[in-house]
Amino acid sequence: MDCVRTAVRQGAKKVTCLYRRDKYNMPGSKKEFKNARDEGVRFIYNVSPKEIIVNQDNKAIGIIMQKTLLGEKDSSGRSSVEIIKGSDFKVDANVIIFALGFTPTKPDFLAANGIDINKWGEIIVGDDYQTTKLGVYAGGDCKRGSDLVVTAAKEGKDAAENIIKSLLG
Hints:
Blueprint (H helix, E strand, L loop, with lengths): L1 H8 L6 E3 L11 H9 L3 E3 L2 E8 L5 E14 L5 E5 L5 E4 L15 H5 L28 H4 L4 H20 L1
Parallel strand pairs: 1-2
Antiparallel strand pairs: 3-4, 4-5, 4-6
C-alpha cells in the first residue's frame, strides 16, 4: 500500500493496484487499504503479470495481465493462485512498480557463520539488531518477514545507531 499511496501523493494521475488474489486475501492492514481507496487508488483483483510492454525506446507503456483463480489453501491458510489460460489483457501504464513479498530463504552461509534463524527462516536479532554472531546486524524483511519499506528503513537506521554505539562504547 505504501507504493500506491506514495504514487498518489507524488501526483500520479491514475494509480491502479493489480493483485493476484481477491481483496480478502490481500495482506496488510484494512486501514491502509481503505486509505488507499479513499485517496483514489483503483484495485483490480485476481490478476497476475505476464509481460511488460515497451516502446521502441524501451520505455514501459503497459503490462499484459492474466486472470487468476484461487486454488487450494497452503499450510499458512493462503490460497494458491492458478492462471486462467487465454485470459490475457492489457493495462496501459507508463510506470510499473512491482511490490512483491517473498518467504525468506535459508542461505547456508548464515548457519555456517553462526547466525541463527527462526522456524520461518528469519534472522534472529536482539533489541539492538545484532544477530547471534557478534558484530553482525540485520533488519528489515530478513529479520521480520515481508513488511513495509518504511519499517525496513527505520530498522536500518536503528541498527546503524546501535553499530555506532558498539564502536564508540
